[in-house]
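Below sits the subject:
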Amino acid sequence: MKWLAALPMYHVTPTLAGDWRVLLEHVRSQLRPWLDARGDTLELVDPDTSLTEFWLRDDVLLTQTCGYPLMHALDGRVQLVATPIFSIDGCANGDYRSVLVARKAASVTSLESSRGQRAAYNSDDSNSGMNLLRHAVAPFANGRAFFSSLVETGGHLASLKALADDRADIAAIDCVTFAFVREHLPALADGVIEIGVTASSPGLPLIASKRVPADGIDALRTALSRALTQDAPLATRLKLGGFAQRQLSDYSAIIDLESDAARHGYPRLA
């Protein structure tokens, strides 16, 4: 079997993208006995299709998705391998949250005071950029549209750039992405102010195809752990403290956040 692997979710800069690939190279090295025993190979790739299409490929040995599609489009169709534990505030035990940010010139000091502003979000199937923002806004919306307009940007970096370009005023940025932005793209981070944080939920999970056998999942978990031990400087650069073996049921918290917004009469970000 020719397996594929990709970790596409936190490519904030080309340097970081390279570091994530190095992590995968370490994982592949650690997996060599398992691969060789089966006569299998593992190719590291950059997905050239939509991420949803890639996540659903039968030959994916390891990749990373968002918790929202895990509970929706991917529900029952992939295997949960592990959840990264980032050495970032709000990321204990593999949890994460989003940082609510506002364009400095918008003179917004809180989410409640941002009624009527323009919001940027990355995509409709994002937990950090859409679902957590919707949940945070719901108590203030009173069942009505809260923002004057929405712009779907396609990614967290693009949302921050929309604020920088005065195309939007408010966004919710995954705290891991924002930590990388603060370190590697400080000018982009300096253009916004933090006005709060969202609720927490399980972080972006590492997943595998349903075709990966149980011993392969075990081998992946061991390889991930050993990869960090093998290259401590890399782990530091990626802000990775380890990997948690969360239960799939933990991710139902994402559905609970969605349901809570609906109970407030705010089923859609608006």
